[in-house]
Amino acid sequence: MTPRRRLTAVLTLVLALALGAGCASPARTPAASPGGAITLGFSAWPGWFPWQVAEERGLFRANGVNVELKYFDSYTDSLNALATGKIDANSQTLNDTLASVAGGAKQSIVLVNDNSTGNDQIIARSGISSLADLKGKTVAAEQGTVDHYLLLLALKKAGLTEADVKFQPLATDAAAAAFVAGQVDAVGVFAPFTTTALKRPGSRAIATSADFPGAIPDHLVVTRDLLGRDPKAVQGLVNTWFDTIAWIRDHRAEAMEIMAKRAGVGVPDYESYDKGTTIFTLDQNRAAFGGDLTASARQISDFLVASELVDAPPPLDGLFAPQFVQAVQP
C-alpha cells in the first residue's frame, strides 16, 4: 500500500491549473457522449477498495454505467488526474478535495465512502502516556496531511498548540521509520504505516481518528463537467457503491480476498485495517450531507489556511451534491 492523503499535492495542482489557464482546456479523457465510459480513480485505502469488488463482480454494468476503473499507486497522481480532467471521478479525502477546489478545480462530492475511525493515529514512545506529555517533545508527521490535521486536533484537545511541540515535517513512510529508529518521540501516521510505527518497543497510540468522529471523511468526487454532462452516470456510480457494500456484507470472505489482493497484503492484515474504517450506510450519507459535511469543510478550510497550504478558504458553493444519495432506493 502506498501513501494516501497527501495535501502537499496542492502545489503541483495549482501549477498544473495555472499552466492551463492561459491556453486550451487541460488534456482529459472525457466520455464521448452521455452513456460513454467514465474513468473512476482510486488508490490505497481500505475505504476505497470496494471499487475493486464492484469491477470484479460486474456491479457497474448491473447499474447501467460503463466504468474504466483506474488504480493509482500514487494517491497524489489520482488527485492531479482529477484536478486536470484526465479522469472523471476519484475517491479522495475532504481535505484534498478542498485543497484542489482552492486551487481552482471544479469538483463536487456525491458520496461519502467512509470515515477514518482508528486508522489514523498519533503514536508515542514509551514514557509518553498522554497528549499532555507531548509538550516539548519532537513529533513527526507529513505536513499538510490529514495526520498533521489529526495532530493539531489532538493537541488542541490537550490544551496545547503546535508551538508547544517540536514539529518535524517528514513524509509518512519516513516519519514512521524515524520513529522506529528513535529519532523522534511521537509520530502521526495512517495504516499501514501505523503497523510500522508500532514495531518500536513500548510504543502505543495516544490518539486516533476514532477520538474525533467525522474529522477525516473520504468521498467519491466527480468533475463538474461530468456532473453537468452525464448525471445519469453519476447516479450509476453512487448506486453501484451501495450495491457493492451490500454484496460485501453477504459475501465477506470472498470480498476480503479481492480487496486484500488489490492492497497487496494478506487477508489478516487487511482485516485489521478494515476495522479502523467505517463505511457509511445510505442513512449516514444522507445525514452527513444534511449538515455534518459542511461543518467539517469549514473546519478543514481553516486548517488549510492556517497551515499556509492555500491562500484563501476554498469556495463551498457547488461542492456538495446530495441529490444522488437522496435518489438511491434503499
From TrEMBL:
Signal peptide: 1-26
Listed Pfam families: NMT1_2
InterPro entries named in the record: ABC_SsuA_sub-bd
Compartments (UniProt record): Periplasm
Keyword Ribosomal protein: no
Family membership noted in the UniProt record: Belongs to the bacterial solute-binding protein SsuA/TauA family.
NCBIfam families (UniProt xref): SsuA_fam
Protein name (Swiss-Prot/TrEMBL): Sulfonate ABC transporter substrate-binding protein
Organism field: Microbispora corallina
